[in-house]
Amino acid sequence: MAISSLSLHLFSLLLLSTTHLSLSSRPNPTRPSISISSSTDVHDLLPKYGLPKGLLPAAVSSYSLSSDGTFTVQLKNLCYVQFDDQLVYYDKQIKGKLSYGSVSGVSGIQAKKLFLWVSVTGMNVDREDPDWIEFHVGALSRKLPAKEFVSVPNCKNKGYQVSNPQSI
User: Which of 141, 125, 127 minimizes the C-alpha distance to 50?
Assistant: First the structure.
């Protein structure tokens, strides 16, 4: 009798573990299947993740993307980009974790706020209104129109902020 209850218990464990394995290997509907070729330009990869291609400047020399979404982007040089009223600095190496509609754990991107440079730690497409991108600076965030990031920006070698470009 003790052997049959032990067998029943082991069979139950085996059945549960097999069920768990089959459920965990099923595709996740919230994580789209994305095929990436080694020749895919990183700017063309971003829209596959629901992000605009202009989040990164044109000066990308190479990038790597792991299966868990961890990425590293190498730029040809340091880079400053002016987005309407926001000056952004890109280091030669940018790191983070890419998932559909968001980038987290970002390093290598800073934005100028008044006289201070603050590190951008993440960004995501606003879930309620996808026409906006929310940028995170620690616990703070700021939303900018997604249309500002439709085209891939070119780098400037020096950072300057233009308050009224029409007056120049």
Answer: 125
pTM, entire model: 0.72
Burial string for 112-129 (b: 16+ CB within 10 Å, else e) reads: beeeeeeebbbbbbeeee
Q: What is the pLDDT of residues 18-49, one digit of tens each?
A: 323 333 333 344 444 344 445 678 999 999 99
CA distance 60 to 118: 22
Q: Which residues pair with 112 in a beta bridge?
A: 117
CA distance 54 to 41: 12
Q: 152 by DSSP, 3-state: which?
A: coil
What is the largest distance, in Å, between two alpha-carbon atoms of the chain?
92
Give 40-45 contacts, CB < 8 A, sequence gap 24+.
42/73, 43/152
Would you call 33 helix, strand, or coil by DSSP? coil
- Give the residue carrying structure tokens 């464990």: 13
Of 55, 130, 141, residue with least CA distance to 98: 55
